[in-house]
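Hi L.,

As promised, Pentatricopeptide repeat-containing protein:
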Amino acid sequence: MLRHVELVASMAAIPMGVSSPKTPLVQQGHIENVHLVSLSKQGKIQEVGDFIKQMDESGVSVTLHSYECLLEMCADLRRLSVGKFIHNHMQRSLNIPPIFIQNCVVEMYCKCGSFSDAHQLFDEMTERNLASWAILISAYAKAGLIRKAVELFSSMETVEPDFSIYISILRSLVDSSSLELGKQMHSLAIKNGFTHDVKLNTTILNMYVKCGCLDSAELIFDQMAEKNVVAWTALMVGYMQLEKRVQVLDLFLAMVKEGIQLDEYVFSITLKACACLENQAIGQQIHGHVLKLGVANEASVGTPLVDFYVKCGNLESATRAFNKISEPNDFSWSALITGYSQSGEFDECLKTFKSLKSRDAMLNPFIYTSVFQACSAVAAFDLGAQAHGDAIKRGLVSYLYGESAMITMYARCGRLDYARQVFESIQKPDNVTWTAIIAGCAYHGDAPEALRLFRRMLSSDVRPNAITFIAVFTAYNYSGLIEEAKECLHSMSSRYGVEPDINHYNCMIDIYARAGRLEESLELIKNMPFEPVAMSWKCLLGGCSIHKNFKLGKVAAENLLRLDPHDTAAYVLMFNLHASSGNWEEAGLVRKMMVERKLRKEILPERREQLLDHSERLAIAYGLISTAKGLVSRSSRIYELAKIAMNLLSVCRWSQEKKL
């Protein structure tokens, strides 16, 4: 280890540790200490210890600067044993260490978690300065040892603190448990006349924000004769923490009016507030300021801009904002990919993900979650499985939300076996994860398994949420368990603490309607504690179409079109109802209404692409090819009208063969 040092020493013709008569005394041991400092900055613990021993053997002293660097290394690496070795070595080498070095030792012990050693050394110090007090008090406060910090601060009667010690201590108070000490510090600062300092006032304001005492923070802010951008930003953060987004925007407008110099952090917070409020007008004003100051290329500003436009539904502007970022980080990519996924642009979402992977960029769990959601929507099993494997390699699958998205993706791609494997690999699934697997089984028609999983969830002391019950009602619907569904709806609040909403009532309306209990379905619509929405009447209309109840179907259709006259599905259900009843004249009128109102049943591009691989029409074709002569084709997943068409087509096929 000494080879490099000896080489340098030999070049100067000076043996290691020996000074030449012509060499100034200040240079004695200089090379060795430079090397020692270098080792400490590289964190080479073992080499540091060995080199100090060799310096001792050569009679070379460790300088104060070297001790300072060594203690800093031990503090940063949390190496208490090495720190004690350095401290003992220093005590042997130095008669009375200077205060600043003793302060370094106290700080090292604090950072290594040895408060007993820190306090013992503090008590043994024959002389202390303000930094000595600040180091120990701040360390106690940061560790949550508030009582110790208060006791120590109270014992400073013989010491006259200046505003810097207040700032040092106040900065360490970061939550409500520190509020008592913060108030004491504030009172003493007022008593000692330090409240005219803008830096101290800003620190006190920030302390109240971090401790959740926004009323006091507002009072400090209003009393400040001079406010810097940090004070404005601190109050903005406080408002955001309490979801007071309108106040954030008010502060921003006030800053602009007063000519306060805006920075990237202000833009970031304000854009987040605009995104939550979907306030596109102010958001675009902020975007104008961003462009004016030329910081749109910074990821810290560009990323909130992307997120803002995504949440406002303006994906085009979000993409433009993203393209202006010179070095997008993983959060920038995540904002864009999430935007594509949430806006239904699933192909763009997956295309962007592939581009990101090709760059070998950093990926986070939110990106994978959005990709799994996109794969779910377009049934892209292969890409979803690849993303799953990639997430495993990167160690990003231990996030429950991402795992829930994976379960849903596999289930919707028709691979319930993979979904179960992911679910069973989770040690402690939460209610979101349970809901994902229950829904997967329910939507696959495996209602008994879905209900068994629901009972298993309850026995695991996991509380279901509102979405869980949507999946459970779907399972009841598939199983035809009407009375069980009815009892579940009535007991949701009392037994599980979940208030049923309009979606749960719509599930029950649909269960009644599909089972042919149309009068009960209508009665529930009339008596439920919510105003019926379009979906309520759509569920009833669907049941009327299945069971050919023209009278109730007409009532449902009229109410549905009153609420949503442009709902294409409503016209399709009405057409099916008339057609299944043989009322072709009325069916023709419905079709005419659709043409007049320029309505048509649209197939989303990604769905159209899926139909290239599989569709009911293709299923019918394969069914006819593989069906034995004389048998009728059937499918439980196609509507009644489609079943009739299949029956007729299969009969026509065999009739045609007879003629031939």
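Residues 640-659 form the longest helix (20 residues).

Thanks again for sending the construct details.

K.
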